[in-house]
Amino acid sequence: ALTILADHGMNWARLKVWVDPADGYNTGARVVETARRVKALGMGLLFDFHYSDSWADPGKQVKPAAWQGHSLAQLGQDVYDHTRDVLEALRDQGTPADMVQVGNEINPGMLLPDGSTDNWPALAQLLNSGARAVRDVSASTRVALHLAEGGDNSLFRWWFYQAVAHRVDFDVIGLSFYPYWHGSVADLRTNVNDLANRYGKDLF
């Protein structure tokens, strides 16, 4: 499947990583193996850390079972260690990540309730723990922050204003856009143009 996609112009692969999934899929070890195939085809590699044991999205940002009951400081260390462990495995096999998402569709925050947007200093602490792990493993890997509802400019302006105000470290803005839920293509165009002009960041 990857070869077919690469032959038809796909130039990046985005691989999601869960902490301890019940079905065994999307573990760090399993996704690192897929990364070898991605890099062999000459594609860019984006690793998408959900910081959960299953899907993380605006409706659910559930802590991994192993991190339940941890303090905010412990959660920051959990994020750092998990991120660094996976990225070191990638680097050590000669397939470093080109970009890393610190969280997936983190509109309400991540690792709720501790990392909620109701408590931006705490959320910034967790996001920066992930970013620091990325920087410590590879200076060339770019850090992305990723939200859903890509047609909602007011949401993105508010969220990234807070991120910048709280000194969150990032290089790239990621958007999910499902037209059924997230508005028109014109809404998306308006949002990405505004974000590019406002922050001078690449977007995906």
In brief:
The chain is α/β, with parallel strands linked by helices and 204 residues long. The protein has helices spanning 2-7, 28-40, 72-92, 120-137, 153-165, 179-182, 185-199; strands at 12-17, 44-49, 99-102, 109-110, 115-116, 142-147, 172-175, 202-203.
Characterization of this structure:
The protein has seven helices and eight strands; from the N terminus they run H-E-H-E-H-E-E-E-H-E-H-E-H-H-E. The protein is of the alpha/beta class. A six-stranded parallel beta sheet has the order 1-2-3-6-7-8. A two-stranded antiparallel ribbon has the order 4-5. Helix 5 links the parallel strand 6 and strand 7. The longest helix is centred in the middle third of the chain and has 21 residues, at 72-92. It is globular and about 40 Å long. The two termini are 22 Å apart.
